[in-house]
From TrEMBL:
Keywords assigned by UniProt, alphabetized: mRNA processing, mRNA splicing, Nucleus, Repeat, Spliceosome
Transmembrane segments: none
Protein name: Pre-mRNA-splicing factor Syf1/CRNKL1-like C-terminal HAT-repeats domain-containing protein
GO cellular component: post-mRNA release spliceosomal complex; Prp19 complex; U2-type catalytic step 2 spliceosome
Family: Belongs to the crooked-neck family.
Gene Ontology biological process terms, A to Z: generation of catalytic spliceosome for first transesterification step
Any Pfam family matching the protein: HAT_Syf1_CNRKL1_C
Organism for this UniProt entry: Ananas comosus var. bracteatus
Matching SMART domains: HAT
Cell compartment(s), UniProt: Nucleus
Cross-referenced PANTHER family: PRE-MRNA SPLICING FACTOR, PRE-MRNA-SPLICING FACTOR SYF1
Length: 294
């Protein structure tokens, strides 16, 4: 009874005129067959659902993702990967020309640029595919110019996990060029953290240059954590003098409301390092901090 009801409803629904999300009817229809252990019939429903011209590309992408997830649930991993490859394939030149002539472009023509679909695809490849295949999917996302900051972070992390450190830094570099503040903030912070971890002890000039670049591009409200991270690197791997110079630069660069907190950190670090006696480092921050408090 339930199956016949879905069938009748779907025959009468016009997805271009329907209010709501008609693609969910197709998904529910397929799930009903799946729950009855009729996987072949469920696949037939999904196949029909992928041919429907929905209002939104995201609706079509959801259908493909649900289909692939069903195959994964039944351990049909290669079938799931094949579906993702099929869904993300770019339409041929001939198909593009034919659709352009009709002046009525269906959502299927835009599917290959769906971030939802590509995100599902790359997650699947990471889970069950090879490193090379996963990298190829990430690279295609970047080539299509649909990557988000989170995609950049995920790709770089994936490469790092597989010991491709230099390649991961290249992805971070692409990310800081693709995005601007505030979207790029987390990319910069993660990039700098990872870079310092690898090169802080051996090639200090390189992370220094990277910090200078990050600070130059940062907005006024985003610069404080970069200076603090920079100073910490100098304390851990570089020169104390340079660390305190970074704090001094930070005081001049941060918004007025954040200057006192920088002075407090500056004084605390100088005292903890035994520099109370050195007027060069202590007199100015103590004086200015006192003025700001009063």
């Amino acid at each position: 009874m339930q199956l016949s009801t879905y069938a009748r409803v779907l025959e009468t629904v016009d997805p271009m005129k329907a209010v709501g999300k008609p693609h969910t009817l197709w998904i529910a229809f397929a799930r009903t067959y799946e729950s009855n252990n009729q996987l072949d019939r469920a696949e037939e429903v999904f196949e029909r659902a992928t041919q429907v011209n929905y209002k939104s590309v995201d609706h079509l992408a959801a259908v493909w993702c649900e289909w692939a997830e069903m195959e994964v649930r039944h351990n049909n991993l290669e079938k799931a990967l094949q579906l993702m490859r099929q869904a993300t394939a770019e339409p041929s030149v001939e198909v593009n020309k034919r659709v352009a002539a009709d002046e009525n472009e269906p959502v299927q023509m835009k599917l290959h640029k769906s971030l939802r679909l590509w995100s599902a695809y790359v997650n699947l490849e990471e889970s069950v595919g090879s490193v090379e295949a996963t990298r190829a999917v990430y690279d295609r996302i970047l080539d299509l110019n649909i990557a988000t900051p989170q995609i950049i972070l995920n790709y770089a992390s994936f490469l790092e996990e597989h010991k491709y450190f230099e390649d991961s830094f290249k992805i971070y570099e692409r990310g800081v060029k693709l995005f601007k503040y505030p979207c790029v903030r987390e990319i910069w912070v993660t990039y700098l953290t990872k870079f310092v971890k690898i090169y802080g002890k051996t090639k200090l000039d390189q992370p220094r240059d990277l910090f200078e670049c990050a600070i130059e591009k940062a907005s006024l409200r985003d610069v404080k954590p970069l200076y603090l991270q920079y100073a910490k690197m100098e304390e851990d791997y570089g020169l104390l003098r340079r660390a305190l110079d970074v704090y001094e630069r930070a005081v001049k660069s941060v918004p007025p409301s954040e200057k006192l907190s920088i002075y407090e950190i500056y004084i605390d670090r100088a005292e903890s390092l035994g520099l109370e006696k050195y007027d060069r480092y202590m007199s100015k921050p103590l004086s200015l901090a006192s003025q700001m408090v009063t």
